[in-house]
Amino acid sequence: MEVTFLGTSSGVPTKSRNVSSVALRLTQRGEIWLFDCGEGTQHQLLRSDLRTSQLKKIFITHMHGDHVFGLMGLLASCGLGADAKDIELFGPPGIEPYLKSCMKYSYTYFPYGVTIKTVEPGLVYEDEEFTVTCELLKHRVTAYGYRVSEKNKAGIFDVEKAKKAGIPSGPLYGKLKAGETITLEDGKTFSGVDFCGPTEIGRKFVYCTDTVFCENAIALAEDADVLIHEATFAHQDASMAFEKMHSTTTMAAQVALAAQVKKLIMTHFSPRYAPGNPIQMKDLLSEARAIFPETILAYDFFRYDIPRRRDKKI
């Protein structure tokens, strides 16, 4: 699981930062899941090493333009390729009529399947490897945060050890792989724990924007390997954060601390902190690290490989 930041500015793009979009690359299955799609996202994809042919799912947090204005262009361009594949689109109320209106008035047809699903708090998607859930955040419009949870995988089964123990191959091996205890005809019992390596703990990716500090963000981010959280304003600009329903650096850090995440990556920075402003980006980082040391400032095309955790045998 690898994260690539395609846009890290809030509201409007700057010379060095595009507006919101984050790509989650699932390397084990050759897929890309996109979170938000601000204007110019397809240009950012072209400048990265990501391939739109691997794009399978798009998750939109809310309907503000800096998070959706790149959606129609990206989907239309995907349809021009010879290898266009179906895409699932998840988003808040309004996502379906918005996209259909864009298609209608631009006379655009997608020569591939685009499935649109309006999300509600709770389970959004599940397959054999991943679950995606969402929760309402606290913003001026309906906005959702998303959590992608990779399912745990059983440790590697030691076939040779099982053979040496005199356990016949077949259904019994399946039970041992599942961690069950088996009993042979001679009365000997064996536990699957003794024949399997450490459980591979699934990784957890959480994306929270746009929002002011809220308890739902903490619940969504609990024990996440990486929390991507908006940090539009510096701490001293908290009054603007509350007025516009955005987060400060310290709010993002407080969420990370309360949720006991492994890594916080802040994004969605106000263009006001450009060179010349007495508050610089390094100051935003210092503010957050004073509360949560494991904090990183994202920048466009920054990549973060989510490390695996491995469980010990019980």
Automatic annotation (TrEMBL):
<dbReference type="Pfam" id="PF23023">
    <property type="entry name" value="Anti-Pycsar_Apyc1"/>
</dbReference>
<feature type="binding site">
    <location>
        <position position="268"/>
    </location>
    <ligand>
        <name>Zn(2+) 2</name>
    </ligand>
</feature>
<keyword id="KW-0378">Hydrolase</keyword>
<feature type="binding site">
    <location>
        <position position="139"/>
    </location>
    <ligand>
        <name>Zn(2+) 1</name>
    </ligand>
</feature>
<comment type="function">
    <text>Zinc phosphodiesterase, which displays some tRNA 3'-processing endonuclease activity. Probably involved in tRNA maturation, by removing a 3'-trailer from precursor tRNA.</text>
</comment>
<comment type="subunit">
    <text>Homodimer.</text>
</comment>
<feature type="binding site">
    <location>
        <position position="210"/>
    </location>
    <ligand>
        <name>Zn(2+) 2</name>
    </ligand>
</feature>
<feature type="binding site">
    <location>
        <position position="64"/>
    </location>
    <ligand>
        <name>Zn(2+) 1</name>
    </ligand>
</feature>
<feature type="binding site">
    <location>
        <position position="67"/>
    </location>
    <ligand>
        <name>Zn(2+) 2</name>
    </ligand>
</feature>
<keyword id="KW-0862">Zinc</keyword>
<keyword id="KW-0540">Nuclease</keyword>
<dbReference type="GO" id="GO:0042802">
    <property type="term" value="F:identical protein binding"/>
</dbReference>
<dbReference type="Pfam" id="PF12706">
    <property type="entry name" value="Lactamase_B_2"/>
</dbReference>
<dbReference type="GO" id="GO:0042781">
    <property type="term" value="F:3'-tRNA processing endoribonuclease activity"/>
</dbReference>
<feature type="domain" description="Metallo-beta-lactamase">
    <location>
        <begin position="202"/>
        <end position="269"/>
    </location>
</feature>
<protein>
    <recommendedName>
        <fullName>Ribonuclease Z</fullName>
        <ecNumber>3.1.26.11</ecNumber>
    </recommendedName>
</protein>
<keyword id="KW-0819">tRNA processing</keyword>
<feature type="binding site">
    <location>
        <position position="66"/>
    </location>
    <ligand>
        <name>Zn(2+) 2</name>
    </ligand>
</feature>
<feature type="active site" description="Proton acceptor">
    <location>
        <position position="66"/>
    </location>
</feature>
<dbReference type="InterPro" id="IPR036866">
    <property type="entry name" value="RibonucZ/Hydroxyglut_hydro"/>
</dbReference>
<keyword id="KW-0255">Endonuclease</keyword>
<dbReference type="InterPro" id="IPR001279">
    <property type="entry name" value="Metallo-B-lactamas"/>
</dbReference>
<feature type="binding site">
    <location>
        <position position="62"/>
    </location>
    <ligand>
        <name>Zn(2+) 1</name>
    </ligand>
</feature>
<comment type="similarity">
    <text>Belongs to the RNase Z family.</text>
</comment>
<dbReference type="InterPro" id="IPR013471">
    <property type="entry name" value="RNase_Z/BN"/>
</dbReference>
<feature type="binding site">
    <location>
        <position position="210"/>
    </location>
    <ligand>
        <name>Zn(2+) 1</name>
    </ligand>
</feature>
<dbReference type="GO" id="GO:0008270">
    <property type="term" value="F:zinc ion binding"/>
</dbReference>
<keyword id="KW-0479">Metal-binding</keyword>
